[in-house]
Structure formats: structure tokens, C-alpha cells
């Protein structure tokens, strides 16, 4: 018997600057303790920590978590394999590998030191999401 892996439909990401760990958990379909573990395993994932050590994730980090989830849960990568894939293909990848077809466009996340949102880049990403949803 062959196991089939179904792609989970995740809710749209609201237009907010910061997300709590609970919000990210719901947006990405991953429990909070898993997110905390992934922070240790993936150096690209660095949420801002504020009062009381509370974590606040930015939009690009939510996209990165969704990509990690896809690699681990849907494509069957190990933690090391997912880490290597992210390192070699950029932090956030829009689909299959570059030679796999038209959806293989790479979307790079802003660096962790970027404090402001690039409105043009955000607009471009939102248009890409709208285009994907329209298919």
C-alpha cells in the first residue's frame, strides 16, 4: 500500500507587521513547540523577542516557516535535508526546484537585519499569491 501525502491548504497571511507564536502556529499548521524547535535547527528563522521573551514573527518568517513545513511534511525531507535545500535555494522558495517547471520561481526573504518592509517587494509577492489563487 502506498501512502499519499495531501497538500494542506493554509489560511492567507494577514497584512500585519508582526505575528505572535500562536498566530503563526495557526497560519502554518504547526504547533508552537515545533516552531521553537525549528528556531534552533534553522538559522534563517530568528523572530524578534520582546518583553518577557515573547516571540514576534515577521511576514517573511511566516513564509519561511511554511516552506520548512512543506519540505518536512509534504516533500519528506529530513531536518538536515530541508536545511540544505533552504541554503542552496534561498530561504523562501516558490515551488519545485528551478528546473521543475513554471512555478519554480525563487522568492528570497529579506535579511534578518532588515527592519523596514519593502512595499514594492511586498506588492510583487501579493500579486504572485493572487495569481496563484486565480489558477
TrEMBL record:
Residues 18-88 form the HTH merR-type domain. Keywords: DNA-binding. InterPro entries: DNA-bd_dom_put_sf (IPR009061), MerR-type_HTH_dom (IPR000551), MerR_fam (IPR047057). Coiled coil: none annotated. SMART domains: HTH_MERR. GO terms for molecular function: DNA binding; DNA-binding transcription factor activity. Residues 85-104 are annotated as: Disordered. Gene3D superfamilies: 1.10.1660.10. The keyword rRNA processing does not apply. This is Transcriptional regulator, MerR family. It comes from Paraburkholderia phenazinium.
